[in-house]
Amino acid sequence: MKNFNVAIPTPFRDDESLYLEGFNPIVKHLTDNGIDSLLVSATTGEQNSMSIEERIHIIDYFNQQKFVNVELMFGVSATTTRNAIKLVKKLEESVFDSILIQFPPYIQPTQQQAISYINELLQHTTKNVVLYNNPFRTGFELSAESLKTVINQKYSNLVGLKEESDAKRHHNTDLPDDFIMFAGGDVNLIEKIMNGCNGLSSMVGNVYPQEIKQIFNDLLMNKPVDLWKIKQLINKVTSGQAIINIKNHYNSLGIKVGACRSPIN
User: Fold this and answer.
1) Known active-site residue 155
2) For residue range 65-92, what is the model confidence (pLDDT) as tens digits?
3) Of these residues, 86, 127, 162, 213, which one is catalytic?
4) Does the keyword Lyase apply (predicted)?
């Protein structure tokens, strides 16, 4: 699995219905600019505004395309295990290389319930899986001890964690050699890498694909970087509502992605 991906938006028509054909120019634009791994239907993709059926339509659409030389990851988020399993099973026979599993939003499971949730979903897929800890949006924080518990169960396809919280919590966890600790987003990127992240799932890469990928690689290799430039690029995209800024950027390029679904449009 690649340790750098760009989380792309979901294109909508003016009436907020899916505009599936809009994915193609996004993929082409980013791959033409050196991006070889994309995350579909995650936070940037407004996944929680979509029904399970709409997300299945996206999977079906990607199955019909012939995207080459690009790794594809799909975000799975659902308030019920049943719906999450439905998505995971659909992805098992799809062109997607990996699955990003977010914990159920809003309902705040216990740590043991979250572990059971992971165990249940992993039984239904052979795809590479990255867990997504995003307490700011879900109201649930996967503890360092719970991650240890899951890691110790030796799932060969559990390859990473996208961490929106403090990666330092996992310093004492014996992670597999090829495990990727993805920084969840670009804000405070330098601090996140210093705290142990060796991967990045980027929103800013939609607007500055070449620049952000180069900065990330330089940081990993301890090469000198322009701290002011990093801050400026990230702030331009993340100030205000990042998803709106990203969609406005694509629309300005003539890549029709529409607006966000209300109430954030």
Assistant:
1) no
2) 999 999 999 999 999 999 999 999 999 9
3) 162
4) yes
Angle (CA) 68 71 76, round 5°: 130
Say what the pTM is.
0.96
Residue 132 catalytic?
Answer: yes
- Residue pLDDT, tens place only, 190-205: 999 999 999 999 999 9
- Domains of the chain, first to last: 4-253 (3.20.20.70)
Of 86, 90, 127, 132, the catalytic one is: 132
Q: Which of 200, 239, 195 is nearest to 218 (CA)?
A: 200
Amino acid identity of 68? Answer: V
Residue 173 counted as an annotated binding residue: no
